[in-house]
Specification:
The protein is globular, with a radius of gyration of 25 Å. An eight-stranded mixed β-sheet has the order 4-3-2-7-14-15-1-16, with helices on both faces. It folds into two domains: 4-184 and 260-396, Rossmann fold, CATH 3.40.50.11440; 196-254, 2-Layer Sandwich (Alpha-Beta Plaits). It is an alpha/beta fold. The chain is built from twelve helices and 16 strands. Strand 2, helix 2 and strand 3 (73-78) form a beta-alpha-beta unit. The structure holds iron/sulfur cluster (2 copies). One iron/sulfur cluster is lined by residues 192, 217-219, 221-222, 233, 238-245.
Length: 447
């Protein structure tokens, strides 16, 4: 089998990051994923409220322009989160996305919530040959698009170990139900049905976060009462968002000690990714990974931490496994950024050193960064046998705003300058400068 091609721009390539994505889109022939007039979903992560690590809207706008250039009808999308925070409902997510800079004005096409306001709009799709799942739940708008461009910020992830294209599909394209399934929250032996409920441990109104517990369960199946035991949990109406289970520190809802859901999660992602890519069509899905601003955790966090690696570059491929493998390999070759998470004392595996795995040991509980990739290979989702193809930028004119392609921008200013009659204002300057260059050099002297 021939090696899978991964097209690549180094971070030093003399081209803007926006233009790199546009150029790679063409080199990897992602335009062949759709025909003129086709609806093209561009899946992004719009970032959590107050996160700053997500891909800049101008990078997304660049891909939108390129899809349009080839006749596609793009829409940019993300999906509601399983947990109920600032992206738990579509209405909140649109507000968060706008605060982070994603609006139809900034990206050049509609931004939509692909699984609807409550995350219930989905298509149940079979997982052929999955390691864990028989079915996965694909966000409806993505399922009904003609093609999918997966535009991913490559970084670390507290549950997935790293976040790349496999995760942007397997979790990112899942509906709310789909995410809960992939997280194994609804697994009969390991998930919420098996969680231990200790209502007697609940402090009720004496607990500082009681309001959140009392009000944040979206189905009101977890509630607080005024009488002991304060906590009530009606599992028959629970949808497995794990909003209550995530607050397990108080000991009221506790994951069984032998539950492997956290360990298996990165591998389950690959099952769902395969289901969705098979459903849309292998030749209808393309991948672009931006390995820049590489945070140790995900863009789902309300902060971003110091970047753990220097920018690695931009990658594009039609093979989801090859592109993630190329990013992980490139990350491992690089030394980490001093002062960042990879340098934290006591981390095994010396992740700060060039040649060592960068993500395996930076989670609270270490887990191999290769779980998703290995699981994906096992189910035939793609190949880790790839070759890097250094991309070549097209002519500069390709990356100019459309309105300046006929004439350069100065041309359009001429009429106004003739009206305003500007002149050289030499009287603005002193005759003799009062400072010498050498006075301005070096740190100021302080006591
Ligand atoms: S369930 Fe836990 S976090 Fe919630 S109010 Fe009770 S003690 Fe507090
Ligand atoms: S009881 Fe179920 S639906 Fe309610 S917050 Fe907990 S996991 Fe979510």
């Amino acid at each position: 089998m021939p090696k899978q091609k991964v097209y690549y721009f180094s971070p030093r390539a003399n081209l803007s990051d926006v233009s790199k994505g546009q150029s790679l889109f063409e080199e990897a022939e992602l335009n062949n994923c759709f025909n003129s007039g086709d609806a093209v979903a561009i899946k992004i992560h719009c970032g959590e409220w107050n996160n700053t690590g997500y891909l800049r809207p101008s990078i997304v706008a660049g891909i939108v322009e390129t899809v349009k250039k080839y006749g596609g009808e793009p829409f940019v999308c993300d999906t509601t989160t399983c947990y109920i925070q600032s992206r738990g409902a579509g209405r909140d997510m649109i507000e968060t996305a706008a605060r982070n800079g994603f609006t139809s004005e900034t990206i050049g096409c509609p931004f939509i919530i692909a699984d609807g306001n409550l995350g219930l709009d989905e298509v149940k799709v079979p997982v052929n040959g999955g390691n864990f799942l028989k079915y996965a739940y694909l966000a409806e708008a993505i399922a009904n698009a003609d093609a999918l461009i997966v535009l991913t910020h490559f970084k670390g992830h507290p549950s997935g170990v790293y976040g790349g294209s496999i995760k942007n599909v397997g979790i990112g394209c899942s509906s709310k139900q789909g995410k809960s399934i992939v997280h194994l929250f609804q697994h009969p032996r390991w998930g919420l049905p098996a969680y231990i409920f200790n209502p007697e441990k609940c402090k009720g109104l004496n607990c500082p976060v009681n309001k959140r517990c009392a009000e944040n369960c979206p189905t009101a199946s977890f509630t607080l009462t005024n009488e002991k035991p304060y906590a009530k949990w009606d599992r028959s109406r629970c949808i497995g968002c794990l909003e209550c289970g995530l607050r397990g520190a108080c000991g009221v809802v506790v994951k069984p000690k032998d539950s492997p859901i956290d360990e298996f999660f990165p591998a389950v992602i690959s099952d769902a990714a395969k289901a969705y890519i098979d459903y849309i069509g292998r030749d209808k899905v393309g991948f672009i990974n931006y390995a820049i601003d590489i945070s140790p955790q995900c863009d789902c966090m309300t902060w971003s931490d110091a970047w753990i690696l220097p920018n690695l570059g931009v990658f594009a491929s039609k093979d989801v496994v090859a592109i993630d493998t190329a990013c992980l390999d490139t990350a491992d070759k690089m030394p980490g950024v001093p002062g960042s998470r990879v340098y934290d004392e006591g981390l095994p595996g010396e992740p700060w050193k060039a040649g060592n795995e960068k993500f395996t040991h930076i989670k609270r509980v270490p887990l191999s960064q290769w779980m998703s990739v290995n699981a994906a290979i096992k189910i035939g989702l793609g190949s880790a046998d790839y070759e890097i193809v250094e991309a070549k930028p097209g002519p500069r004119e390709n990356y100019l705003p459309n309105r300046y392609k006929e004439h350069p921008p100065g041309y359009y200013m001429r009429k106004a300058f003739f009206t305003h009659k500007p002149r050289i204002e030499s009287e603005s300057y002193l005759d003799v400068e009062k400072v010498e260059l050498k006075e301005l050099q070096g740190r100021p002297v302080t006591r």
